[in-house]
Amino acid sequence: MSNESNTSFGGTIGRTVADSTPAWEQSRGAREGAPNVITIVLDDVGFGQLGCYGSSIATPHIDSLAEGGARYSNFHVAALCSPTRASLLTGRNHHAVGVGFLADFDSGFPGYRGAVRREVPMLPEILKEEGYATYAVGKWHLTPPSQMTQAGPFEQWPTGRGFDRYYGFLGGEEDQWAPEVWEDQHYAELPEDPEYHVSADLVDRSRRYLADHVSATPERPFYLHLAFGAGHAPHQAPKDYIARYQGAYDHGWDEERARILRRQIERGIVPEGTELPPANPGVAAWDGLSDDQKRLYARMQEVFAAFMEYTDAQIGRLLAFLQEQGLTENTLVVLLSDNGASGEGGPHGSANEYRYFLGLEDRFEDSLAMIDDLGSPLTHNHYPSGWAQAGNTPLKMYKKYTYGGGVRAPLIVHWPGHVQRAEQVRHQFHHVTDLVPTILQAIDVDVPESFRGAAFEDFDGTSLAYSLADPDAEGTRSTQYFETAGYRGIVKDGYKAIANHEPGADYDADRWELYAIREDFNEVADVSAQHPELTQSLVDAWWEQAEKHGVLPLDDRMQTRVQSRDLVRERASYRMLPGARLPNGSAAPGFGDREFRITVQLSDFVGQESGVLVSYGRRAAGFVLFMDDGKAVFDLNRAGEHTVVSAPPAPAGTTEVSLTLDRSDGKAFATLAYDGVGVVTQELPSLMPAGLGCLSLQVGYNYPSPVSPLYERPARFTGSIREALIEFPDAAPEMSEQHWQRLIAAE
Prior knowledge:
The chain is an alpha+beta fold and 747 residues long. The chain has three domains: 36-469, Alkaline Phosphatase, subunit A (3-Layer(aba) Sandwich), CATH 3.40.720; 479-556, 2-Layer Sandwich (Arylsulfatase, C-terminal domain), CATH 3.30.1120.10; 567-746, Jelly Rolls (Sandwich). Helices cover 21% and strands 21% of the residues. It has a nine-stranded mixed sheet with strand order 2-10-9-1-8-4-5-6-7, with helices on both faces. The chain has a six-stranded antiparallel sheet with strand order 18-29-20-25-26-27, with no helix packed on it. The protein starts with 35 loop residues before the first strand and ends in a 6-residue tail after the last helix.
C-alpha cells in the first residue's frame, strides 16, 4: 500500500494490522557515558579577584575547582558582557554573530544587531540534538530589551535558543535582594524569605533542575549554564559575610595591589619580575586620602569581598549537590568571568549608582552617611575605581578597555581524570571563542552541517583541550582581535597592539601602542617607537580581521545607538491593563525629562481603597502613583531623594485618577486630579531625570521592591482598575552623549 504522505516511516502499512509492519522512531540520544557540562559565568570579576588568582577574598570552592583542574593565566574575553556571552555560547567572534556591542542596541549594521543571528547555533542548540537536557540559570543579557515582555517575541530568550528551562534575569544588572526574575517565558515572584538573595536563589533553582533531571532521566547528560550577578554592581551581601571583612582593607588599594601581585608571582600566575604599571588615570594614592574617604572606600571593598565570598559559598552548594549525587567525576565544569573589573564607580564609588545613571549629583557626603547600609537592600552601591584597579592586578585599566584589565580574565576548567598536573598554571594564549570547540571536543560531539537552513559556519575559536593533558604544550592560538565602542586591539604572534580611542576622535589619528606580551605580561613597556614596521603590520592585521568578522563600521557613539534601538519607546500613548508589566526600561515608555499624563480608569470606587495604581521603577529610583486610604499620592524617587505630593480623599464614585507632570517658566510641576478636576499642584525639583535604569512599568502593583517607602511591596490596589492610559504631548528629547556614556555602567 502506498505511503507517500509519510516517507520517513520505516515499516509497512497494509489494509490491516495483520499485514502491516510497525516501526518506531528512534530519538537521537547522547553516547553512553557522555559527560555533563556546566558553565559558570561571573560578572565584572577581575583577573585578581579570586583567591586562586592571588586575591585576599576567600573563594575556597572556586579555588577547589582550580586545585583539581586547569587554571589559565592568558585567557581573554571581550571587554563587555553581552559580547563575551555571545562568543561563549557560539564559539564565534561577537561581531560575527551580531553582538558587537551590548544586547540593548541595534545600530542597523550586521555586526551590531544586539542579538545572536538566528542561523548561528548556540551550544545548547547543538547539545539538544545530541540528546542533552539543557538548563540556563541567571543573567542572560542576549535579548533585545523590546522583546523582554510577557508577549515576547521569545526567539532570543534562553528557551528560544536551545535551553529547555530558564530561570533568571534577562537584563544586564539586577538588585541582588529584589531582582526581576523570569522563569521560562513568564515573570516569577520571589520566595517570601527575609534573607532572600539572588545568588542563593539561582543555585536553589540549579539544584532543583538537576534534581528533576536525575530523577526523571538519569541516563541523559545535561548542560547547565549558570550566570551570577556577582561581582557586577550593585554589590550586595548578607551582613554576616560583610562582618567577616571588617578592617580587612584599611591598608588601601595601593598596598592591596602589591599584596595580590606577590601572591600571583608566588603561585606562578604571573612571571617573576612582573611589576605593577602606574596607577590608572583618576585613581588617587591611598595615602593622600582623608580619613573619611579611607573609611568609606574600605567599607565599599569589604562589601564587594563579602559579595564574592557569598557567591563562592553558593557555588560550593552546587558542587556539594554534584558530589552527593555521584555526578562530579563525569561533569566538565568551566568557570570564567565575562570581562575585567568595572571602574565605572569613579574615584568615589556610590551608595546608589542610579544617581550616576540619572545624571544627578552623587555626593561623597551622601554615600558616607549611608556607610552602615552599604550592601543592604537600601543601597545600590558600587566601589571606587581604585578597588577595580586592584582587582585587575597586575593589569592596566578596566572593563570596556582593550588593555589587559578589560579583556584578560580568569578561566578554570575542572574535569576529573582529564586534567594532568593540575597544580601547574596554563599560560597558553586563548580566547572565549575557544570554549565551545573545547566542550564539543571533550564530549565527542560533531558540529552540524547546517542549522536553520544555512550551512554551518566554522568556529572562530579552537579547542584548548590539548592543554588539559599537557600544561607545557605549545599554544594553538596566535591571533585575536578586540574592539569595543572604538577601543581596539589585536594579539598576534606574541605581540599586542592597542589603540586607546577617545569617543568622538578621528580613528586615523589614534596612536597604536605595541607590547611584547610574551615578556611584558601586563603591557607596561610600549615598544611601538622601536618597532614601527611591526606595529604597522599589526594595525594592518587588525583591519583585515575587522573586515572579516563584521567589526566595521567602527562606531564609538552611544546616543544614536540608543535612538535607533526600540521604537516602542517612541509611541505617543500607551494603554495598559491591570496587572500589566513592561520590564527593563527599554520596553517601557521613556519618561526621562518628558512631560506626560497618566490617567487611571477606576470601577466601583468607594473611597477607602489603597495600593499602587501605576509604578515605574524600584527602591533605587523611579516614581509611583498610589492610593492611601482613598487619597491619591505621587512619589518622585530621584535615586533616594523623595518628593511626595498628596491629594485630599477622592469622593466615592470617582472614575478617574490622573497624574500630570509638566513644565512652566522653567520649573517642573506635578498635578493630581479626580475626574479631570485638579485637586493639588506642587513644584518638583525636576521631571523624572533622563538616563538609564533597569526600571519596569507596572499597573496595579509595585514589585519586586517599592519605589516609595510609604508602602510595602507589592502594594496591590485593593479596588478595581479598568485601564491606565499614559500620554506624551511631545516626542522624547534627545539626551546628551554624556548621558549615554553612562550606559556601560549598568551592563
